[in-house]
Amino acid sequence: MSRTVPPGRFIAVVGPSGAGKDSVMEAYCAAHPDVVRARRVITRSAEAVGEEADGVSPAEFDALAADGGFVLHWQAHGLSYGIPASIDAALAEGRDVMANLSRSVLPLLQDQFARSAIVLITAPAEVLAMRLAARGRETPEEQARRLKRAQFQLAEGLDPIVIQNEGTLAEAVAGIEAALQPERA
User: Fold this and answer.
1) Which family does the UniProt entry place this protein in (predicted)?
2) Is 141 helix (H, G, I), strand (E, B) or coil?
3) Would you call 153 exposed, middle or buried from its count of C-beta atoms within 10 A (0-12, 13-18, 19+)?
């Protein structure tokens, strides 16, 4: 069931590990200060290497979920992830919100958000492998599992904006801008 219809748009960003989602999102939001980048809540310690996120214990995460603290939440890679309900304020102000999601929750977008867009950021397998190794967050075995999952299909009926992030960061951001611009009005 759709929640209250906010005038802002929820921009869901998905893609394989190593595609550069966080870097592209950061650059896009820097170029568009009116766009809010949702800070995920993750059952990973706040000190862990990786994206800027709010780390919580599994018990804290479960309590937040039970109290309606998330607009979306899911599990992946042995962790729990959530998008805080606090983004509703930005959407109600008419601001777009951009969030890094799992493809498993994409079918819920149309039910949860009156206005949404999906951006699929990807890159060739060799680029993904190089980036995963460089970030040093996973073991070689975990990197291999993530690379194996890189070639995935989205649920039927979804029409993502596809960005091949194998060039410069500016090129990836320009691709998103061009694709989202017609809908910015």
Assistant:
1) Belongs to the ribose 1,5-bisphosphokinase family.
2) helix
3) exposed
| Residue pLDDT tens, the chain, 185 long | 444 545 899 999 999 888 889 899 999 999 999 999 999 999 976 555 456 788 899 999 999 999 999 999 999 878 899 999 999 999 999 999 999 999 889 988 878 898 999 999 988 888 888 888 888 777 888 877 777 776 777 778 888 999 999 889 999 999 999 998 755 43
The tokens for 171 are 């090129």
| Cβ-based neighbour number of residue 82 at 10 Å | 22
For residue 15, say whether it is annotated as part of any ligand binding site. Answer: yes
In the three-class reduction of DSSP (H, G, I as helix; E, B as strand; rest coil), residue 150 is classed as coil
Domains and CATH numbers, the chain: 10-179 (3.40.50.300)
Whether residue 10 contacts residue 88, with contact meaning beta carbons closer than 8 Å, is answered with no
108: Cβ contacts below 8 Å, ≥ 6 apart: 72
18 a known binding residue? yes
Q: Is 21 annotated as a binding residue?
A: yes
